[in-house]
Write a structure and sequence with these properties.
Length: 458
């Protein structure tokens, strides 16, 4: 799960860059952009100072930033802070939970950025080493710090990165950071990396951040950028492009996507993911695209994908209509349609799966054999087997499935986790609402107790 966090982190960091961009230069092109931004801010500050008159004291536009940093450092200058002190100040940001309070996160991130922009480079280098001991800071968070360091001294940072075992990850972090302020320069360096002959591990984050940056420039620039990428980097960028494109570019973007899809240049799942995202951001465009599809399996897949997306918004009426239409599109092969898409749907929205199963026509009901592996799709929930049992039509097979699942719990040969006491307690309560016959319930409870005794006794 670490991989998705870095694009988010670098994007958030990029917001704060706007407050402090240009306070310090660097080699390799990154510093040139920063220097230019700094000159513009200084000129802006001079103009604002003049307009405020003598009462303002001719303060620079970054006086508020200086006040924030001074408060963080208890009135001391950044040049007076040791590496250990700076590291301790940065730790809360480097170890912040992903679901931290947004206002607190933004404030701490701003302080973090200010401190990194003002620390003397030798001190920042020491902080970087401290953050990489593997004990106090997760490695992917430490790479955030490296990205900030690289914008101040690109050549030296890259030379240092080459001495590290995770050099590709570090370079990707630096390029991702640069992409938020100078996407053209970052894209140029990224292309050089692609052609370097070295392993491309860790570069997904860079392409993602660059794709977001180019999407903000419009659909023409976005397509120009992705057409120069390896195929494995393209699909996810296409799926998420609409989040960053200017609103007026959406129609042209969709027209190009449909053209590429018809030519076989874009996979159907990429289009489905794109429209699932657009169901939230651009619902009218998503509906137009769906209506343009001919009835059949392709449209049914798209409708199921949209239903999964809408389920996260609680739009039950629209979900039911989409699922009914999807089942109509799979007429005669409804059971096959449901089975082939069970893994993805169960992991995304078990409630959607339950509604889909309920729509299966007579004669195509699910059996124990159909669902025997579905309990593995519950994200580690031992009680997922109760959900799966509910999809089985026959009462006898429902009980048989639960008994087999309970008997197989904890068998290492099957790669299963070993449940603990709390898992069994949850299972016991859930089984009371499993809709089993009295005889079936007795048999399942016996199997549950046997599994509990076998596993907890070890």
């Amino acid at each position: 799960m670490k991989a998705p966090l870095l694009p988010i982190a670098t994007a958030v960091l990029g917001i704060a860059v706007g407050f402090i961009g240009g306070k310090s230069g660097g080699a390799g092109g990154a510093g040139d952009t920063a220097s230019k931004d700094g000159q513009e801010q200084n000129e802006s500050g001079k103009r604002q100072g003049s307009s405020r008159g003598a009462g303002s004291g001719g303060q620079r536009s970054d006086s508020s930033a200086d006040a924030v940093l001074s408060n963080l450092l208890k009135g001391r200058a950044a040049s007076e802070i040791t590496a250990e002190e700076a590291y301790q100040l940065m730790l809360p940001q480097l170890n912040m939970d992903w679901n931290a309070d947004p206002l607190q996160s933004a404030r701490m991130n701003y302080q973090f950025q200010l401190l990194m922009s003002k620390l003397p480079l030798p001190v920042l280098e020491e902080v970087l080493v401290l953050s990489r001991d593997g004990k106090s800071v997760p490695p992917y968070r430490a790479s955030m710090l490296f990205g900030a360091y690289a914008t101040r001294n690109w050549e030296k940072a890259m030379a240092w990165a080459e001495t590290q075992p995770d050099a590709p990850v570090l370079r990707s972090a630096a390029l991702s950071r640069l992409a938020t302020t100078d996407p053209a320069r970052a894209a140029e360096l990224y292309q050089k990396d692609l052609m370097s002959g070295e392993s491309r591990s860790g570069m997904w984050d860079t392409s993602y951040t660059l794709g977001s940056a180019y999407a903000k420039q419009g659909q023409a620039e976005f397509f120009k950028f992705i057409d120069g990428l390896p195929s494995g980097s393209v699909s996810n960028l296409l799926s998420n492009a609409a989040r960053n494109l200017p609103k007026e570019d959406i129609p042209a973007f969709l027209a190009e996507m449909q053209k590429r899809s018809a030519e076989g240049k874009v996979e159907s799942w990429t289009m489905n993911n794109l429209m699932s995202n657009m169901a939230t951001t651009h619902p009218e465009e998503a509906r137009k695209w769906l209506d343009s599809l001919e009835p059949g399996t392709k449209r049914a897949e798209a409708e199921l994908s949209l239903a999964n997306s809408l389920a996260r918004q609680g739009k039950s009426t629209e979900i039911t209509a989409l699922l009914k239409s999807a089942m109509e599109g799979a007429a005669g092969k409804e059971k096959e349609f449901v089975r082939e898409r069970a893994a993805n749907t169960l992991m995304q929205n078990p409630a959607v799966m339950a509604e889909l199963v309920a729509m299966l026509p007579a004669g195509q009901e699910l059996t124990k054999e159909d669902v025997k592996h579905w309990g593995n799709y519950g994200y580690g929930r031992t009680d997922a087997i109760v959900d799966v049992a509910g999809y089985i039509h026959s009462q006898d097979e429902k009980a048989a499935y639960l008994i087999e699942s309970l008997n197989g719990m904890g068998e290492n040969s099957r790669g299963n986790r070993k449940p603990n006491a709390k898992d069994f307690e949850i299972l016991e309560h859930r089984l009371q609402k499993a809709g089993l016959t009295p005889e079936g319930m007795t048999q399942v409870r016996t199997a549950l107790q046997g599994a509990r005794d076998k596993i907890l006794a070890k």
